[in-house]
What we know:
It contains 10 helices and 11 strands. With about 325 residues, the chain is α+β, with helices and mostly antiparallel strands.
Amino acid sequence: MPINKSAYRRYKVIDMLVRNKMKPYPTMNEIIEACLEKLSIDSSPNTIQKDIAQMRESPPNGFDAPIYYDHRMKGYAYSDPNYKLNDISLNDSDIDAIKEFIDLIQNIGSSRISEKFNNAMEKILSTVLEEFPEGDTKQHFLQTMTPPKSRGFEHFDLFYKACRTKTPVSFVHYSYKKRKFSAVIIHPFLIKEFENKWYILGYSESHKEIRTFGLDRIFDPFLLRKSFISVNRKIVESAISDYYGVFPIPNQKKQKVKILVSALGTNYFEAYPIHESQKIQKEPNGFSYITFNLVPTLELTRLFLSHGRHVEVKEPEWLIDFTEKLK
């Protein structure tokens, strides 16, 4: 059973009172008064009793709190005097780092993570803000572009589970180019984001090869109970590290790509490298030769074309012809 925000805040108050060595053995009335004073929550004895019972539960439902009622002292105490709720020691530097990280997460937003992870993040944020309430009024110094949630993103959790558990998935795919629907069974191994769009990569039974599908074109996916077809680990690693984009050009492997870039265009590639293999060789005339060692993709050629006269493909020969045909 998930622990809600209000209950957790009361747990923290109860823990604080029970560990107070200056005034040990808090009574039920003292706990209720403390909740009202610190949290503006008017709690009943029944609510506090349920909270204490929940604290005694084992994780993940509780905290294994050794709390008990001392009839002689007529108050509550821990049988282990060293126990502390969520006993994590943080120094000032740790706290400052957490505050900065939370501020960053709040500004970036949650459009790039699944609903399940978003819910978990909301719980973390609410807990931290309870510990550091001054964060609510802190001036923000960061604004990022938050794209709207794209169609198909609601299937993220299903495909994440399928990749993690190696489970085939059946779905209906719509081709923008052919303008028709088709049934697909995929054995997925990677979810990939590129330019705020999400894709699933896996072995397609109908195509008999590794294929990439945009989540925005996927409808009615469901998990299948059948044997999973695994792909070579090197293929997975290549899809992660050797692509700029998601759609490799058919029948092309990892290779050297060389472009000639103007002085102005060089500034862009210096500021925003597109791949870890990128190397820049500047010429006396201000132009540069930039090389990459990767799998050529459709997105790579479109990037080159988007720079117009500032970028010219020099190697390999086939990519020069391929790019020319796209103009």
